[in-house]
Design brief:
With 597 residues, this protein is of the alpha+beta class. It has three domains: 4-145, Creatine Amidinohydrolase, Chain A, domain 1 (3-Layer(aba) Sandwich); 158-292, Creatine Amidinohydrolase, Chain A, domain 1 (3-Layer(aba) Sandwich), CATH 3.40.350.10; 304-593, Creatinase/methionine aminopeptidase superfamily (Creatine Amidinohydrolase), CATH 3.90.230.10. Helix content is 35%, strand content 20%. The protein has 19 helices and 28 strands. The strands form eight sheets. Strands 4-3-2-1-5-6 form a six-stranded mixed β-sheet. Strand 3 (63-67), helix 3 (72-78) and strand 4 form a beta-alpha-beta unit. It is globular, with a radius of gyration of 24 Å. The termini are far apart.
Length: 597
């Protein structure tokens, strides 16, 4: 089955054999992960879609792929519209589409290990309105027809040292135990891979770009834990690190472990745990408490060791990015640089640090019209050259043992148009507005999201993604619960109050379909701010990312004196931190790039 058309046909034939009239295909794994291992890339295998968020529904005579505003252009480039309808979310939900298109009395299959209980309940209600039913499958029909489906990774776990983690695994388990006692619970199920990595101070290589291992965990109120992970992945060093308080069991024994919680009060996160976990506990007779994973907020609020590590990672990453930007300034105008070469060159500069573990996501190396696709991913078939007088956008990051980075820079190769400069400067003004924001404790990201958009709104413009996401400490580059976003946008929804110690991105943008795109992204740290004469506890942001912002794209007259002062001060910090790490022509270029406006 070399074509996606053939794969769709094979799936429909399998659904007939399984007595199903449709099937829902999400882009996730058994842990509700954003980035998944190769074995779980069912949506990409079936449709060709390479984005990091989406879903599909296959019916006998119709099929649809669901993506949000970040992928409006990308999905049309990668998925054949002759076989798939393009559906935008959240404007139309999968449940709503099924209710409209499924036949009366249809049996629509779903994999209970790939959906939340809330989604199952919602879809069940929507289908019931027309006499259709949602059917849990015991074996995923895509797995039955995907002949060369990769096996899950067998990579070994590694220890995240306490000096980088800032707290031992035993301390973290005791804090979770205290949380359990406070909530009158006897155990908590951890199924999110980054929560498990954080709680046990381990890392893995089972998911590209995210240093996690495929595992489940049950933490008990006595601070002991059961860790369900393939035993061949745990060597003596990791076993010694985990200690006697952690019982190691094979990942395949997880369902049995859940059944042993019969009669107990068990905390399970409805947002991060799949429906099958809830169903297994219900059948076993456990009392399920729908509570947020106790690691989520603790993981989001970084301790001093994690903050110090992140700043060290940012310093070396900023130097690698600055070397790349210098290289680009020399080579791009000559011709011969394309999106793949640019991405490979930036990775090489990061690798020269000797400390890069992985990228933190697939680099978005986007020339000209591709820059208008917020989550574009280049491959051999889409690769474009960097051309004169066109914008080039590169969004990238690295995984280092002491920190996870994520940074976007937009540059002009040649001379920008007046419109490009206007749009870039409006994005920059919004970026500065977030960077300099001061707000009372208890404020959530949704309340300040408009700060970044106001200058675009004034010109009748906007962007269809959130302004900021949380970032992990040598963990997921997209980490909750903190975010800066409209409730209706990706990463939106109920918003978490921002707290001192949280990392977030600051990344407003602008995208002109078919022409160019702009995004300026730095990472920031929420910190307390002392306001003379103030009556409330106030918070603000410390910028953590340091690399030059392209002065050639700035319409200086659009900046206020305070904004110019911020940019000049920022570039002075870039030069002070990054300059000593560069030499020769690269250092001279940086001095020019950081020159005061």
């Amino acid at each position: 089955m070399s074509t996606h058309e053939a794969r769709l046909k094979a799936l429909r034939e399998q659904l007939l054999r399984d007595r199903l009239d449709g099937f829902v295909v999400p882009l996730t794994d058994e842990h509700m992960s954003e980035y998944v291992g190769a074995y779980a890339q069912r949506l990409a295998w079936l449709t060709g879609f390479q984005g990091s968020a989406g879903a599909a529904v296959v019916l006998p005579e119709a099929a649809a792929i669901f993506t949000d505003g970040r992928y409006t252009l990308q999905v049309r480039e990668q998925v054949d519209g002759n076989h798939w309808a393009y559906v935008g979310v959240p404007e139309t939900s999968i449940s709503d589409w099924l209710a409209e298109h499924a036949a009366d009395g249809a049996r629509i299959g779903y994999d209970p290990w790939l959906h939340t209980s809330d989604w199952v309940a919602q879809a069940t209600r929507a289908l019931a309105a027309k006499g259709a039913t949602l059917v849990a499958v015991t074996a995923n029909p895509i797995d039955k027809v995907w002949a060369d489906q990769p096996e899950p990774s067998d990579a070994k776990l590694s220890v995240q040292p306490d000096e980088l983690a800032g707290k031992s695994s035993a301390e973290k388990r005791h804090e979770i135990a205290e949380w359990l006692v406070a909530h009158k619970a006897e155990a908590a199920v951890l199924s999110a891979l980054d929560s498990i990595a954080w709680a046990f101070n381990v890392r893995g290589q089972d998911v590209d770009r995210t240093p996690v291992a495929l595992a489940y965990a049950i933490v008990h109120a006595d601070a002991t834990a059961d860790l369900f992970v393939s035993t061949e992945k745990v060597d003596d060093e990791v076993a010694l690190h985990l200690g006697n308080g952690v019982r190691l069991m094979d990942r395949d024994a997880f369902e049995t472990g859940l059944e042993r919680l019969a009669g107990k009060r068990v905390a399970v996160d409805p947002e991060r745990a799949v429906a099958a976990i809830f169903e297994t506990l219900d059948k076993a007779g456990a009392t399920v408490l729908a509570l947020r994973d106790p690691a989520v907020l603790a993981k989001a609020i970084k301790n001093p060791a994690e903050i110090a590590g992140h700043k060290a990672a940012q310093a070396r990453d900023g130097a690698a990015l600055s070397r790349f930007l210098h290289w680009l300034s020399v080579e791009a105008p000559k011709g011969g640089v394309d999106e793949l070469k640019a991405a490979d060159t930036l990775r090489a500069f990061r690798e020269e640090t000797g400390l890069l573990r992985d990228l933190s996501f697939d680099t978005i190396s986007a020339a000209g019209p591709h820059a208008a696709i917020p989550h574009y991913r280049v491959d051999e078939s889409s690769n474009l050259p960097l051309e004169m007088d066109r914008i080039f956008l590169i969004d990238s990051g690295g995984q280092f043992a002491d920190g996870t980075t994520d940074v976007t820079r937009t540059v002009i190769v040649g001379t920008p148009t007046a419109e490009m400069k206007d749009r870039f400067t409006r994005v920059l003004k919004g970026h500065i507005a977030i960077a300099t924001a001061v707000f009372p404790e208890g404020t959530n990201g949704g309340q300040i999201d408009g700060f970044a958009r106001q200058y675009l709104w004034a010109a009748g413009l906007d962007y269809a993604h959130g302004t900021g996401h949380g970032v992990g400490a040598f963990l997921s580059v997209h980490e909750g619960p903190q975010r800066i976003a409209k409730p209706s946008y990706p990463g939106g929804g109920p918003s978490e109050p921002l707290r001192a110690g949280m990392f977030l991105s600051n990344e407003p943008g602008y995208y002109k379909a078919g022409d160019y795109g702009i995004r300026i992204e730095n990472l920031v740290l929420v910190e307390k701010r002392e306001i003379p004469g103030g009556e409330q506890t106030m918070l603000g942001f410390e910028t953590l990312t340091f690399a030059p912002i392209d002065r050639a794209l700035i319409e200086v007259g659009l900046l206020s004196p305070a904004e110019r002062a911020w940019l000049n001060d920022y570039h002075a910090q870039v030069l002070a931190l990054i300059g000593p790490q560069l030499e020769g022509e690269a250092k001279a270029w940086l001095e020019g790039a950081c020159k005061a406006l």
